[in-house]
Structure formats: C-alpha cells, structure tokens
C-alpha cells in the first residue's frame, strides 16, 4: 500500500562499502557541494549536431561535443557501417581543411547544423598500410581469435549468447509475456546435486563466430617494395589476393588508390589489368571483382555494427583466457608482418619509431592540476601512458625470455644478463653479484621487484610534485620474473657510484644524503607514515634519511629527481624476521612467531600500517577523553559539567536530550568528550599557549601511551630501517630506536590479534563473501594481511566456534594454499624446460598435479625429428634453451609430497594428502576449480574440452591440450581521484537515503571515470552497477537494464568471463530482466551464473543460496513447481548451514542472508502485518512441502503425492519476494512516519554539519550512525556490506 506515492524516496538502503575508504594521500578534503557545482560546468559543454557529406552515400547528421577533437569524428566515420571502408580522408568546412588534432570548439564557424565534407586524400606508404590494416580489422571484426590469443587488448564476452542480442529491444517484450510457454529446464549439470562439472559450456559457441568468408587470402605480395621506376609512377606497395571464387589477383596500392595489375606469382608486370578500375578504397575494388565479397562484406558489417560497443572496445590492460577452443590457423598478412618487422612501439602512429617512455611518463606527471579540467586531462594522460607502457613492457619481457632480444652484456652468464628493447630496461629476478646475499639470495631477488612495484605504486599515489619514480612493470613468464623499467636519462653512460646522491647502493655501508631529496621525501612522510631518521655510514658519520637506506636518489640528465629501489618503503614484518635477542609480544609467540622466512624482505602492507595507525588514533582519543573526564569529575564544576553533557565518567549516562532520543547515550557522550579532545589537541598542536598545562599533560600522556613521535599531537610514523641487516644507528638516537622497535612489535601483534580475527569475523557474518582464490586474496590484502599468513587464517577458521559457517572460506583457503604451493614448484620446474618441450612439460606437470592416473609418462620432445648431430653445449644459451630433461622424471607422488612440504615451509600449514584424489576427498575440493586456479596463477592456456581427471587408465592431459603460456603481469593502476571522490560522495548520499542526489553524483562520477579511463575499467563497472540498482529502485526498469547490461559486459571483458564479480553482475541483470517481464532471459542468465559458480567454487557457498533462491522464485513464477522445489530446497539447505537454523522461520527470505523480522515500525504497522501474513502463507507451503518430502523419504520416489495446492503466483508477488531476498526493501510510510523521518533527517543533517570540520583521520567515528528510524535500519542490514564483496575497486 502506498501513501504519498513516496515509495522510492523512502527506501534508504543501498550497496557500497560500509566505511568509505579514504584515499591514502595528502589530506585533501572531500569535494564539498560548493566546489563541485562550479567545477562540473566546465565539463558539460552542451553538444550540437553537424551534417556529414561523404562521397557515394546520403548526407547524415552526427552529434558532437565541443571538447572532442576533429580526429574523433574520423574514428566515428571509420566505424560507421556506410563509411567504414574509408581511412584516408580529411574533413572540410566551407572549403577549409580542419586540423586533425584541434578541438571542435576552436574551429571558427563550426556550429549547430554546419556541413562537414569528407574529402579523399592521396595515399602515402604509411596511409596505404593503415588502410590495409583497417580492412583486415573489418574482415576479422567478428573473429574472436585475438581474444583467445590475448593480443591487442581484446577479450571475451558471452552475454549476448544468453540474451539473444540486445536487451533493450522492444521486440523482446513479446517473448516474456506472463505465461507464454517457456522451456525452463536447465541442462542436467546445472541442477542442484549434480556432480558433473563440464568445462565446455564455459565458452559457448557464438553463432556469429562462424565467420562469413569474404576472401581466402589477403597478403603483402612478394614483389614489394616497388622498384625505383615504379615508385616514380606512384606505386606504394603490392597486395596479393585470392577471392572466395578462387580467382588470384595482384593489386597495386598507388597514391591515387587501388587497382589491379598484371603481375602473377612468378612474373612481374605492373601495368593495370582489366577492368581498369581505380578505387580510392580497397573494399570498393574488391566489391567490383568478387560478388561473394560484396555480399558477405555487407552482412559482416551489419552484424559488426549490431554488436554492443562494449564487446569490441579494447580493454586498458590485456586480459588472458585460460581456456580456448581448437582454432584453425588462418593466413593473416598484418599479423605476419607485425611479427617480423620488429614492430617496437606502434610505429605507424608515432614518428621517430620508438617512444621515449620515461619522458612520456614523467611529462604527464608534470601537467598542471589546479582545477578539475586540468586534473582530468592529467589523469587521463597518466592512465593512457601507463596502459601503453604496460603493453610494451609485457611484449618486451616475453621477447627477452623467448630469446629474441640481444643482451647488453652478452658475454656474462645467462642469469646476469640485462636487456634494452624499445627504450625499456629489462632485468631478471636473480641475485646478480650477490647483491641480496644477506637477504636470502635468489629468493629475495625474486620478491624484490614486487616490493619495489608496491613502493612505486605508493609514491605515485601520494603524487608529490618534483619527485619522480620509474615506470615499472613486473612480468612472470615461463618460470622467470622480469622487471621492466623506464630508463633514467643518462644513467647508462655513468657509473652507479657517481650517480647515486641519496641513499645507499650497498645496503647501508656507504650512505649519502641530499637536502633536496630530504625536502621532497619529507612531503611523503606524513601520508606514508615514514619517520625521518639518522643512520651511521661506514665512516661513522651520521646521515639523515627519510626513507629506507636502499632507496636511491638519482638526478637524471633531464634534471629530474628520481627515486628507485623502493623495495623497503614499508616497515619490516617482525613475525617473519627472527632477530636474536628480541622478544615479540605474547600474541605473536603464542601463534608460533617469529618464523624464519625464505628471505628477509617481508614488509607490512600499507593497508596494515594505515589500519594500525587508525586503531592507535581511536585509542589515543579514548585515553585522552577518559583523562579529561576524570579531571572534570575531580573539579565538579556544575556549569562546565552541564556544558559537557554531564559526564563524570565515560560510562555515565548522558543527560543530553539529543543523546537520550537517539537511544545511544553512551555513543553521544563519548562523542562529545572526543570532540573536546579533538579541539584540545588542535589547540595544543597549533601551540598558541591558550591551552592550560593540565590539558597539555593529558595529551602528552595519551601521546606517550600510543607511541606517537610528537608529545603535543597524535603522529605515528615508522622507521623502515629498523632491524635492517647492516644498518647502524647513532648513539644519540637509541631511545627513538627502542620506541620504534616496540612500535614494530606492536604492529606485528596487531596483525595477529586484530586483523586476522577481524577477517574471520567478517567472513562468519558474511560481510565479505570471497568465491575463489583471487577474491580471498583481495579480502586479505584489504585488511593488510599478507598471503604468507594464509596458514594462520586457516588455523583460526578451524578453531572458530562457527567453523561450519566458514566452510566455504576453509575450502577456498585450502585450494589457494595447494595451488600457490604448486605454483612455487612449477616456477622452478619450468626454468629447466627448453622451448620445444614446453607443452609436453606443462601437460606432464598438470597430469601429476590433477590426474588420477597413477604413473603418467612424459614424452620427450625429441621424438618428432632426428637431428644429424648433437651440438656442443654453449655457456650462455638464451634463457629458455636449457636442454634439461629432469622435468620428465617427476611423479604424482613426488609432486604432492613437495606440495605438502611447501605448504608447511611457506604457510606453516600441514596438509593431509599425498595425492590429488585424497586432497579432493579430505577437503571437498573440485579438480576443475584447482585447474582454473593453477592456470590463472601460472598463465597456462588449455584446450576447451572435457577432461577425464578421474580415469585411472589414461592421463587427463596430452601435450596437444596445452595451447599457450601467457605472462602474468603486475603493474601500477593509476587512479581517477576526482571521479572516485564523486563516487564516494554519491554512495554516502545513497546510504543516507537521498537517492536522487546520490544518482546525480554517481552519474557525474561515471562521466569523470569515462574521461580518465576511457570506456572500459573495473571502477566504471562498479559505477554502472550502482546506477542500475538506483534506477531499479526508483522504478526505471529500462535504464536499470541498460546500465546493468553494460556492467555485465564490462565485467566479462575487464575481469574475466568467470570472475566472481561477473557472476554477481549476471544475478543483478537477471533480477532486472524479470522485473521487465523478460522471463526466459532472466532464467538463462541465472543458469549461467549458477554454472559459473559451480565451476569456480562448487555448490556449497552462501552466495549459492541466494542464487538458488532467485532461480526457485522465477521458476515458481512460471509455475514450474517441481523444478522450483529442487532449487529452493538446496537454497534452504545451504542457508541453514551458513546462517544457522534460526533463519528457517522466514522460509524463503532467509536465504537472502538477512532475516527480516518485524522492522522497527511497530507491530501494528501495515507492512509488518502484511509481512507476517506472507510468512504464514510461506510457512504453510513449506509445511506442505515438508510433508510431501517426508512422504517421499518414507515410500521412496514412487510415493503417490497429492498435488500441492498452489495458486498461480502473480508476477508482482514473485517480484516482491525477489526484491526482499536481494536486499531491496520498499517500505510504504504512513503520514506520521514521514513526519518522524523528516525530523530524523534534519537532526542527522545538523550532526553532520557539526562533524564536517573533523579531521579525516577520525572518519570511523563519523561513519557509525546510531540505528534510528527505518531508513537507517535498512542501511545497516548486513547486505550493505555484502553487496560489494567482490569489487576490489571500491575498497580503493
């Protein structure tokens, strides 16, 4: 029932992180409403439309916006169906040619209705090549092979297979009308209880992929390049074509266009052939000579344009697929040419052949950033260069390992070699010249690059002007780790000793410092919590540093101040660094720490440092508040006591009228006490002498208690050199060093006593729902827990009282432990394999790891061909050429023994299994899941087919099943900070219930994200999902569908087709389809989600309860009761296990993960009544079901069952249930409720205003609102946190 039609606005519950994460940077305030209003205007210049006149087609109009470049109109025309065959043209306005790179607003006379004429330009060799490349791209536009091969940022998407094209089509509506007969039976393997986990449905065959053949061959002719006399006739190059009708022709590309010549394969005759047809476009020429081409090319382009743009746009970083179908290898001139003309950077776009990566990376950082448009331009440039650099570095690293790049020190042995390719410097993850001897040798050299990358990421995020880091990408490929870095200008000409003017090149023996570096690093010390400190060098002189000793400062020839080797930006993790004579706190020793690790570079994560400091800050505030109150209590001055809310002690009840109203006196009281402390702390810190000495004493004591480095203000920083081997500190600093050591011990204890238990608690309450190894790792890292603690996390899960409710976490954890241990072994295993034996070696490893076949035999690669003589072994072969066949003797028993050993040594966890079957049996794992995890971690790509893992007669894998091995790439992810602030503000607004305002802010965020990242990005995906949900709540189903469709496509393309995030997006999309009465589509989407979840984890997961609930309800809605029953029963079983039997009383809705009893609306509220009626009805049905079930159990399946009396459900009632289980509640309010609500919102607003002036550090206090009134309760449903567990982007 609806009063005031106010339904949507009264809904105050939304997804998002419960505590919006803060940018860990300089303290910039949130963009307040005042600033955003003015700044946004700059971006939204209104668009206008222009008319385009192109040769041979009707004029058409095109919508453009003033800040687009002329070049972008070119792109649009090259993509349009009717103009896509043109590449070499210019645009003219009133007879004047427009400059490619000028913005439209700077073009004189360009306005609404202007006519732009497309004028064909003469070709050059470069333009002709671009044209041929473009035609080839058009011919291949529906062919997925680039996505399977992981090239050019193509990736897969399968949504259109399940929705039959676009969702928004009005034509779709007729399908879904209420009771059209729909075939709802899912394939057998999707039904609950099925043990079958097939692999093939992962990549269903898309019917558009059977490409229409337009040509048989299009390649460069062997007669290239044209001889001098033909060059002077305008010949640019020659092409060879075989048409679909098997006609072989030779084509000349000349400055005026394309025509047939009379050459054959063996005879050169450049004269034009008949028909003497000259065409400016290759496509038009081919249309003339091949009817099949003409017909098929037109159909192909029609299909291409019908695809959703998100299926075709390139992703910012390459996503690789771990499975691929068997593909025919077709001739492709462009690919062949690229492979052999060492296409370094993209030469065809950039003059001067190779790009100066360092210059590009640093120049983009120097762009101005005073206002929003400048910042957007800067962030966009930074992001673009980073994604280009990552792509180039990945290609280079693969070339290095494959032996295609010459080393710069070729005479040294293989491990020591370094490479330069395309202005990028490559080094291998080995301990060269015993550099890491004291830190663990090769093992330390292997982890140093990732630590260094984390350092680069952090300094980039702080973004201090004048301080520069190197472009850094870490690539793991074929068992080797390669670090790719941009090159500091001039570094190669001089000796390292001369160039380092800050830091140390020998881990602290010789140390130098530099005032400019100290000044620059000082600016990073507050956000990064790094302490300025002194160390002694080998001459016993004190040197001041503001980073760890091995962080080096080098001034390049370009005059910029670079810092590099940031591998110890964060303080050491004492749990894994035993120091003789140092005792760890009891929490650590109880857990068996310190444990010696393989290397001494274990650092705490930045997230942990931040969490620890936050924790200490709350402690500091509480201590100070307590002391102040004790002082006040001893003074007993009635006046001040009234002002202060009458707080003799922190436990006392507050007489503050507001406090008692909210029903959280204690919170109100401590808040006002804390506000006083805050004020006091600021007064003392500003040191204007107004604070009285007793208050100073309070702050001093609190500072001392929490380990602050200042006695007048809270300020915790770490000295990253403490416990660093070889670093010595001067006598004068001994006290400071002692305090710092204590701080590090406390941080190590904090990780064990707060963070890990906090993680387990969140998992128990389903506040986070990891679904696979990667999402579990994300959840751990967000809390600052390194993966080496995985064994400890699992121990805690095992000991937890709620062990059963953590079953899914335990399974994921064990699977992650096993596959990570296997990955460590695989890495060294691969290093001994030569290139020709790669597929045999990988398939042998997979057989030992996953197949039940007891003794797989490795096939050595030498059996195909006999060579005449064995060449003698050379000292420095290229990396991948070791003729080592040790890998062939590995057995499953040996591998599993090593895995268990590795799990014990690395994670300190005892696995009880000596074969894969035992592991599967003991821990309830799935082989297919283990296969997915190991493939993703190591970059293996396998053939898409059904593997018989359990056969004891033949091995599961043959060498034909291993298709490829991809690099695993780690890189910096530059952020769009303004967009992110808008997004957070939008989330906050939505959580307070201001849906309209929230929606506007999030739309704005979406615009800004698009501005910075382009169209495809993880964060845009989160934005779209939230927008879709808001539109759904506000009743705009069509908008919700369109946004959610984009979110699904983007998640498939950017995160992977079976990433847990994609599974969730599919579920949301199904709900919105159902609401738009597209029932069959909704079902096929839910079935897809269920299949993916079975593959990624299995059936026994809390999220599966929600999914089965959705499926059951939709089937119930289309009156498929037997089928519906199977899914609902499974949902019931799973949710009973994970949420306890108490939740059963809410039959269906329990499975959503929250039991809605009567909301705080009072027992006599209409909605409560309705809800209890509803439950009664559900309970009756459930009881009837139970009876039926008992009957079946008693008499076996032959029992004859009286049909249950269900009334045909109305779609509205089913939709209402669906909303409830998906955490969306509409609460119609009565007039009185509305009044209360308004008062509540106003009161909130005042509180907010008051707390706005608080420091950012204090945010946790501002974000723990008291439950009051219906909206807040919705917001504090567990769903608020659960909604987004798998979106790492939101966790910043």
Question: Largest sheet, order of strands side by side?
Answer: 2-1-5-3-4
Number of strands: 23
* Rg computed from alpha carbons, rounded to a whole number of angstroms: 33 Å
Shape: globular
Structural class, from secondary structure content?
Answer: alpha+beta
Poorly predicted runs of 5 or more residues:
1-44, 170-179, 342-352, 638-669, 863-875, 1144-1172, 1197-1206, 1253-1292
Distance between the termini: 41 Å
Helical fraction equals 40-55%
Average pLDDT across residues?
81
Q: Which sheet architecture does the biggest sheet show?
A: 5 strands, mixed
- Total helical segments: 44
Q: Which strand-content bin applies to the residues?
A: 5-15%
Overview of the molecule:
The chain is of the alpha+beta class. Helix content is about 45%, strand content about 10%. It has 44 helices and 23 strands. The strands form 6 sheets. A 5-stranded mixed beta sheet has the order 2-1-5-3-4, with helices on one face. Strand 7 (about 235-245) and strand 8 (about 250-255) form a beta hairpin. Helix 32 (about 995-1015) runs antiparallel to helix 33 (about 1020-1035). Mean pLDDT is about 80; it is low at about 1-45, about 170-180, about 340-350, about 640-670, about 865-875, about 1145-1170, about 1195-1205 and about 1255-1290.
